[in-house]
Amino acid sequence: MSTRQKPLAVPHTSKEVQPQGSLEKLCVQEDFRFLKIVAEGRFSKIVLVRKDTDKMALKAISSESATYEDFKREMDYNYFLSPHPNIITSYNVPFILDNLFVFVQEYAPYGPLSKFVLGGKRAGIGLLEPQVKTMAQQVASALEFMHSLNLVHGCVTLDNILVVGPNLSSFKLSDFGSTRPVGSLVKKTEITSSCIYPPEISQILPQEKYYMYTSLDVWQVGILIVQCLTGCDPWQEADITDPFYCQFSDWHKKKSIRVPDLFKVFSPRLVRLMKRLLEPKSTKRCEIKEVNKYLSDKWICRECGLGSSRTSLQKSESSVSRMSRKSSTRSIRQRNGPLKSSSSVRIVKFNDNSVYVEQ
């Protein structure tokens, strides 16, 4: 005999829901039935609720981390862009609960894409090629729509791509907190996955300002495709101090003919697309619609499984170690001068296996 699970009770609060600006007063306990917290971060959370027979998501943003203007801008952009089929639907129902700014949006039953790439059965392996192509096509469509309106999303990450269809068949772009008009001057913020920042932003310090252009979204889609196909970040940061990015940069600039190890599973056509999406110079980066030209091509040369991904990483780590050893050798030579030839060195071995080197 199955028992019906009781819904989670709304925490009692002595504070009444108060309107601010154009926010309407709303009795939360009467309008929504709280079910569970779907996701929670440092400054925001997503709460699953039921209204009548429909499931919805409440996005709650801490008023300590965002101003009312920041909250309203995100909600307005989301509501304005909602008609696109690959953008999460937002409803014009904002309100305040305790110290949280809240608005209502569509519930994504399968959660963020990061759950499938970084967790679950295919963690560290990557998704299937058809699934990645579907994701790339739908996300590119959403971004092309935004770019046509002179808007930059600014944070196209695994966490901000929501899965709304079974078997990774449908995706929607979410989280418009970083969205700004093209050419806006914004501050750089510290984020967990710094590889989504292109070189022109990686080279500046946190809290310094940079201009937002659509080329930022293009770079992030390139990173997204690599992550989904391989289950790995291509590098930690797009900076010359990062050996993995340095290897990619040298190859991209044709200073080296060696293909980055993580890219060796990619077909020539996908390599061409990656070079265009991950172009180090923002002014030369392609437009997001370029992705559509490569959807009918084969993207993987061989099965991108756990073995090939690990092998690529091991090779990359080995190459980094070799580069470090070469760098150390160069430093020693610079300090001590060139090594003498073997003809000027006499090695004497004693019976107790000790070795004496005479120059």
UniProtKB/TrEMBL annotation:
Instruction: Enumerate the InterPro entries for this protein.
Output: Prot_kinase_dom (IPR000719)
**What range(s) does the Protein kinase domain occupy?**
32-300
Pfam families linked: Pkinase
- A molecular-function term among this protein's GO annotations: protein serine/threonine kinase activity
Q: Where is this region: Disordered?
A: 315-343
Identify the stretch annotated as signal peptide in this record: none
Lineage top rank: taxon: Eukaryota
**PANTHER family, sorted:** INHIBITOR OF NUCLEAR FACTOR KAPPA-B KINASE EPSILON SUBUNIT HOMOLOG 1-RELATED, SERINE/THREONINE-PROTEIN KINASE SBK1
Protein name, per record: Protein kinase domain-containing protein
